[in-house]
Amino acid sequence: MVKKRIFPLKYKLITLVCLILTGSITAYMFFAINLFQKDKKAYLFENSQLLTTNISTALESHFSQLKLEILSQHKLTLQSEKQPFLTKKMNPNIIASFYRGKSSQIIKNAEQNVLEITELQLKKLLDIPEHFTIAKGSTYALKPLDFTSKEPLLSFSFKVPSTNEYVQSIIKLNDIYEIIVPYDSYQTIVTNKDKQIIFNSKPKESLGFIKQLLTTSNDLENYTKIYTSSTKEKWVVSQNKIETLSLNVVSFIPQKKAFIAITVLTYKSVLFAGLLLFFFSALTIIFSKKLTYPLQNLFLATQKISKGNFDIQLKSQSNDEIGNLSQSFNTMSKEVLRLIEETKDKAILEKELETAQMVQDMLFPKEGLQTDHIQLVSHFSTATQCGGDWCDYFYLDNKIYCLLGDATGHGAAAALVTAAAQSAITTFKTLHSQKLIKNDSPDFLMSLLNQSICHATQGKIKMTFVILSIDLDTETISHCNASHEWPFISHNGDSDLSPRTRKNMDTFDGHPGPPLGQSLESEYSSLSSPLSHGDTILLYTDGLTEQRNTSGEEWGERRLLKTFTKSSHQTPLEIKENLLNQWNQFSQNSEVLDDVTFMVFKYNAQKQILRKAG
Question: Is residue 363 a contact partner of residue 418, using CB atoms and an 8 Å limit?
């Protein structure tokens, strides 16, 4: 059962893109705004310090120029006898001026009639001392005047150079306004050494902060810094001291206002990020739908396959990996259909091979042969389900026949050849028992097998073969060979149980005939030799000697002969077990490439049996 999708792929893709975009934009905004804030702060500090410096320079220049104008005016009027002296040639921002020296003089600006006062009132207003002093290190002294007027006035005092004389004037602040007001973003105050406010560019604003600032600020140094008010509001404050005027120029601006550009930038960045995120999210939705649509079709197709429907073909509309995946799926679907058909055919074939194997097993003798004269065992194993090896043994007129053959290749075709051979032998035994065939020599039997296999295979499959016939009456053994491996014979030693050596080993003589099934005209001959008590004979197919181990080395005839020699004094069953043990140890569980068949029998002579019985 397929698990229900809780979070589909397209939503994962959209979420992933949104997270990547959000993270990237957030990181960019953080670093960009942080960098801009640092840069803005440095610029703000530099600009604030430059502002107060420029104002200070302008004020110092202004009052220096004003001093020259006042001295020049007094120099022109000192010779006049009119007191107070009225002149129309004075700076319009100078209301009146008092000169005290060897001869005192008060002059008033005729154009400025804001002060309709007497000389006594003027002296009182100016608070003219008998001995005038200016702060050490200063050139001028300024302080605000408390006088009923439509506009604020300022007392401006200075010593005349190289004398003990001094001048004290009443001036208006118009020129100072012109110096300071252009810097409207900042609020600027000018204070004297007594922290009296000489000038305030915005008299009605920030009064509480100004009071706190005058209380806590240090007049002895120039600085630009962030100042936190009692209301926790942060201000950017810059101070510059004018030594010659004994004044402090202080400009300040709320940090929030100063950093308004950062706020605007942040707002616009967030807005842009939102629009960008929306745009890319829309693109992702469109793209993910296009991307996941073929995947959805592929998923549905796999669902159908899971239900056994393999006849499915997807339409591939793209040339990317998804299109390749669809094409691969179509190829896989076709291949699965083909494999299913092959599996059906293979299952039928395997069933048929199982049947053939069962039939072939019936062609082999069920168990060994055990008589007073003969002890015989055999072994047969196939490389596949059906093999091309075959062996048989049977009694016929006090003779024992041993037959062993090896058809070309292995499998079902080779198994059919062995069936033909077995059928021919069965026919021979039947006809011989009915006295229809009198010849029972191995060469006649071999010719009969050749005729049967030639007709069965039409020369396409051949079979090597060997036939042994033991005549118990004459104690002789006849053999006929059709291109098969010659059997080994091990003669008895000093006693039945004494081990045997290579000296006891022998092979059958003769010229082998052609393999069975090669030609209908093939001729075969048989030879006979005496058989002695204890003689042990081994018949085998080449699958036994040609088996290779994991190193690719063959077991070979030499190892077979050596193993057979060492155990040939034992019973045939013990010889069989020893051969299989040695062969398996050498093979090391490597793949068996050919059928393996061998037969071992031992002869017991009649006189030996009678001797034991006596």
Answer: yes
* Separation CA 136–CA 121 (nearest Å): 29
Q: How far is CA 400 from CA 373, 375, 575, in A?
A: 10, 11, 20
Nearest to 67 by CA among 162, 158, 166: 158
pLDDT digits (tens, 9 = 90+) for 61-106: 888 888 888 877 777 655 554 444 555 566 777 777 777 766 666 6
Residue for token pair 């929030």: 256
Dihedral angle computed from the Cα positions of residues 327, 329, 335 and 341, in that order, rounded to the nearest 10 degrees:
-130
pTM over 0.90: no
* 116 sits in which H/E element: none
DSSP conformational letter for 4: P
* CB contact set of 36 (below 8 Å; sequence gap of 6+): 262, 265
Find out whether 364 and 381 touch, Cβ atoms under 8 Å: no
Instruction: Give residue 542's identity as a one-letter amino acid code.
Output: D
293's enclosing H/E stretch is helix 260-306
Whether the Cβ atoms of residue 489 and residue 503 lie closer than 8 Å to each other: no
Instruction: Answer for the pair 189, 56: CB distance below 8 angstroms, yes or no.
Output: no
pLDDT in tens, 359-385: 666 667 877 888 888 999 999 888 877
